[in-house]
Amino acid sequence: MSSAARLSPSAPVAGAGGHDDRKGPPVADMARIIGLSIPAACMPDVVANTALLQGYADLVSGFALPDDCEPAYEYTP
């Protein structure tokens, strides 16, 4: 879990279905901390995108690299 998601415990997300979903990301708390205003109509999509991005972050952080792995000095797409 990212450090941003650990800033505060999960709280009910206003405007995200009207129920207390403690398994979702604490989007309302994170937005309040950084001074971001998210319209209630946008909250369900913001919550869904945050959860999707957290899943990608978990995949990347869960990929173990050995200590003897050679660094990539040049990247060619």
- Sheet bearing the most strands, described? none
Question: What is the arithmetic mean of pLDDT?
Answer: 75
The termini sit apart by 29 Å
Question: Measured on Cα atoms, how large is the radius of gyration?
Answer: 17 Å
Total strands: 0
Task: Give the helix proportion (percent range).
Answer: 25-40%
Q: Which band does the percent of strand residues land in?
A: under 5%
Secondary structure class reads mainly alpha
Q: Low-confidence parts, pLDDT < 50 over ≥5 residues?
A: 1-21
Element string (H = helix, E = strand): HH
The helix tally amounts to: 2
Region (Disordered): 1-25
InterPro entries: AtzG-like (IPR025148)
Pfam families: AtzG-like
Protein name: DUF4089 domain-containing protein
